[in-house]
Amino acid sequence: MEERNRIIQSLHDRKSVRVFEDRRIGEEEKRAILEAAMQAPTAGNQQLYTILDITDAGLKQRLSVTCDNQPFIAQAPMVLVFCADVQKWYDLFIEGGADPRRPGPGDLMLAVSDACIAAQNAVTAAWSLGIGSCYIGDIMERCEEHRQMLNLPPYVFPAAMLVFGYPVQQQKDRKKPERCRLEDIVQENRYERKDGKQLREMFRKDWENAGFEQWCTRFCQRKYNSDFSREMSRSAALYLREFSGENS
Known about the structure:
This protein is of the alpha+beta class. The chain has a domain at about 5-175: 3-Layer(aba) Sandwich (NADH Oxidase). It is about 50% helix and about 10% strand. It has helices at about 5-15, 25-40, 55-65, 70-75, 85-95, 105-130, 145-150, 170-175, 180-185, 195-200, 205, 210-225, 225-245; strands spanning about 50-55, 80-85, 130-135, 155-165. Helix 2 packs across helix 6.
């Protein structure tokens, strides 16, 4: 293609936004974003998600603390939590006398896919309206607190949180982080595990200024071995326990 169409160009241009103008998102724009989310692909047209629209300022403030102390969450004009929701279908089957089995891990995984696909539709729709967004993975942490705060029943999991707002000029001008090359990500037919040389080349864009071992160690400590990453795994295991039958 000599020139990308507007949708593809928008997908290339979009980047996370964490600083917003002091400007509300109108009800028309908000509804358009939510309706776009609901048009996302969904397994069996089940829409295995529920979207929580966080409008309470006090709740936004609490979430900004429980989600790794990030004040911009409380300042965002719009905050949405996309919940993987198997509960409503389980309740529906009981209501209809269908004698459903207890939800299992596969049901959770399918619902998480549904919820995240819908969330990405919302991100894309918002960007087309000049509204930026940022995913907040920390919503998966602190299971006990977030369950209580959001009134989540056993078969509902907070798969993704998104904050939205109009980006300030600095955020518009900020360079988008470089992605890996296409040939690093796409494999044909079968998965092939990369060797050390291939991995070094794949992530050269990240380490070439700092040195491979130094960058790798720092990134591992900052992300993979971090307290928040360990907490996310702990909380995810608690959510998964409901779907594994351990609490039945």
